[in-house]
């Protein structure tokens, strides 16, 4: 093993940033397949999640020569590969990479690519393709994946010559991680993988016409925003994932503390600042906290940072914060005014914009306004939270499980949640107090996301406590990845909340379809026994008195562990803003 290979292998174990490998010698003959592996390593990639097949087989042959530098995780389904790459990216901040064959291998990535596009997740998808001479002939396992994926990729290209591979990989990594992050796709024909060429080093500096990943900060817009903040009597900051993506947590803290600004988080913005912060007023959105939803229709200023004003936050746009002046900060100019008109739009990296705002605003406090949020907290506690955390029923509630998990881990774990009622319980009842975040499928709402994403996150950061929180429905969409977890020795911790229903659909059918339950009941296996069949430790809990011990056992395990908790069958998640209603029409029961 070379010195560089040893360093990279150690970094792979510790989760520390990768190290680029320089070519040695600088010019030599190599195949396109080797060029791909070599370029990934040189670009700092340490892990690839993938599934082999005919059109990508030359690359898999080349990977054998790079196995000390480039770890390959063999997933059980291509959707698992893309979700694992997403989880890897979300905790590492670096692009996750996945590798598949052509045709169904490539199309099985599309759900995850769409998910990554909506949630601004940097992933690089590499797909094999039939030989160039057969393109357009409907050859075996041929699919025009560039056309199929075009609406949900940030950039894509088809490679038919081996000498184009190094530049394409370098550009893909650059585009995926810069500006507003997102998914990119490289489709490589089989003849390009077999072909040889004289490799020369590729520069990593990219100047792409029309691509401005870091917009110039408009100082006049910042000055106007500072004036509106200083004039506001009832301001509210809406914190989105953009704050986390830009690493702007310290700048956010400086701004809100200097100007005394209450702040609320979107689902993907959770963890930007600790939830114990005295200016934090709760989670925004359909199943968010009572205070920030009610007060959205009373505030006189909304400062939105790195968030999209999506429908799950706004409810009815016709009713949304009509009284408020809006300042919107986003690195993507297309988001400014897309859903909610902004009086001031600042197209900039969140870190740069927040630093400028913090320097420009006057020192202030809004104690009376903040007290109104605290009064809302008390209403919610009495009418919702007390019953969720300390129920008088024998059955365990989802909120209890999340609350006990938070208590037993000291709020230090990073949660990876699937989609549904358990997702909302995780967002509401876990205390994100240590700079950790909630990793979940936000925009697309992809069931089946959590198990492979937890796997990818654990590969990226084995030094962190990472726990998947998964519903019984979503778990059964990708449970085959237990095989990859065990084979690779990945210490995944997974909590399955089993209520025997597609829980969120059941809640809507109860509330809005007169309890006409249609196609929602699940006849589930014992999931702990399923885990055991894969060779994974597990435990099923149905009694409240066993819960703490089971959580402790899971967290103490050095190996993968699945904890199945049987919860109440017909539990609802409140508060809730009904679809089409305004934020102030939030229901507590």
List keywords for this structure.
6-stranded parallel sheet; disordered N terminus; alpha/beta; Rossmann fold; single chain; 39% helix; 589 residues
Task: Walk me through the structure.
This protein is 39% helix and 16% strand. By secondary structure, it is α/β, with parallel strands linked by helices. The strands form four sheets. Strands 3-2-4-5-7-6 form a six-stranded parallel β-sheet. A six-stranded parallel β-sheet has the order 11-10-9-12-13-14, with helices on both faces. A six-stranded parallel β-sheet has the order 16-15-17-18-20-19, with helices on both faces. The longest helix is centred in the middle third of the chain and has 23 residues, at 367-389.
Give the quaternary arrangement of the chains: single chain
CATH architecture of the largest domain: 3-Layer(aba) Sandwich
Number of strands: 20
Q: Indicate the low-confidence ranges by residue numbers.
A: 1-23
Number of helices: 24
**Using only CA atoms, what is the Rg?**
24 Å
Largest sheet: 6 strands, parallel
Question: CATH superfamily of the largest domain, please?
Answer: Thiamin diphosphate (ThDP)-binding fold, Pyr/PP domains
- Please give the alpha-carbon distance between the first and last residues: 62 Å
Quote the CATH topology of the largest domain. Answer: Rossmann fold
Q: What's the arrangement of strands in the largest beta sheet?
A: 3-2-4-5-7-6
Identify the CATH class of the largest domain.
Alpha Beta
Helix content: 25-40%
């Amino acid at each position: 093993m070379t010195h560089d290979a040893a360093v990279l292998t150690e970094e792979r174990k510790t989760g520390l940033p990768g190290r680029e490998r320089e070519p040695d010698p600088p010019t030599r003959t190599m195949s396109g397949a080797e060029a791909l592996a070599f370029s990934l390593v040189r670009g700092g990639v340490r892990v690839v999640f993938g599934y082999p097949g005919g059109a990508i087989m030359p690359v898999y042959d080349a990977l054998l020569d790079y196995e000390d530098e480039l770890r390959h995780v063999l997933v059980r389904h291509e959707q698992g590969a893309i979700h694992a790459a997403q989880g890897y990216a979300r905790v590492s901040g670096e692009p996750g990479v996945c590798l598949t064959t052509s045709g169904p291998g490539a199309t099985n990535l599309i759900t995850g690519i769409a998910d990554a596009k909506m949630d601004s997740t940097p992933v690089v998808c590499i797909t094999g393709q039939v030989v160039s001479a057969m393109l357009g002939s409907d050859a075996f396992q041929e699919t025009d994946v560039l056309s199929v994926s075009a609406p949900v990729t940030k950039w894509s290209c088809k490679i038919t010559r081996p000498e184009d591979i190094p530049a394409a990989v370098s550009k893909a990594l650059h585009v995926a991680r810069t500006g507003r992050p997102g998914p990119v796709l490289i489709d490589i024909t089989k003849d390009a993988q077999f072909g040889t060429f004289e490799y020369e080093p590729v520069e990593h500096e990219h100047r792409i016409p029309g691509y401005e990943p870091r917009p110039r900060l408009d100082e006049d817009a910042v000055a106007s925003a500072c004036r509106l903040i200083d004039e506001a009597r009832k301001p509210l900051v809406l914190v989105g994932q953009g704050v986390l993506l830009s690493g702007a947590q310290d700048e956010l803290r400086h701004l809100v503390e200097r100007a005394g600004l209450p702040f609320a988080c979107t689902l993907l913005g959770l963890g930007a600042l600790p939830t114990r912060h005295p200016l934090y007023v709760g989670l925004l959105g359909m199943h968010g906290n009572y205070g920030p939803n009610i007060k959205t229709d009373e505030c006189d200023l909304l400062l939105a940072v790195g968030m999209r004003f999506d429908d799950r936050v706004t409810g009815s746009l016709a009713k949304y914060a009509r009284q408020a002046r809006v300042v919107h900060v986003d690195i993507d100019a297309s988001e400014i005014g897309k859903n909610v008109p902004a009086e001031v739009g600042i197209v900039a990296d969140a870190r740069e914009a927040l630093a400028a705002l913090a320097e420009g605003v006057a020192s202030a406090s809004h104690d009376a306004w903040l007290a109104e949020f605290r009064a809302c907290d008390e209403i919610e506690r009495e009418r919702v939270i007390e019953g969720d955390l300390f129920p008088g029923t024998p059955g365990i509630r989802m909120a209890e499980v999340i609350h006990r998990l938070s208590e037993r881990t000291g709020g230090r774990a990073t949660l990876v949640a699937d989609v549904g009622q358990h997702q909302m319980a995780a967002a509401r009842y876990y205390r994100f107090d240590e700079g950790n975040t909630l990793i979940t499928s936000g925009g697309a709402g992809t069931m089946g996301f959590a198990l492979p994403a937890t796997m990818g996150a654990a590969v990226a950061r084995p030094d962190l406590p990472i726990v998947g929180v998964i519903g019984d429905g979503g778990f059964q969409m990708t449970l085959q990845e237990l095989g990859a977890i065990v084979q690779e020795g990945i210490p995944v911790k997974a909590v399955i909340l089993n209520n025997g229903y597609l829980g969120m659909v059941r809640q809507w059918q109860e509330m809005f379809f007169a309890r006409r339950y249609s196609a929602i009941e699940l006849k589930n296996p014992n999931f702990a026994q399923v885990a055991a069949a894969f060779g994974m430790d597990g435990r099923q809990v149905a009694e409240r008195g066993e819960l703490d011990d089971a959580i402790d056992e899971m967290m103490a395990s050095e190996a993968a562990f699945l904890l199945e908790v049987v919860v109440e069958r017909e539990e609802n998640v409140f508060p809730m803003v009904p679809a089409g209603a305004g934020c102030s029409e939030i229901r507590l029961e």
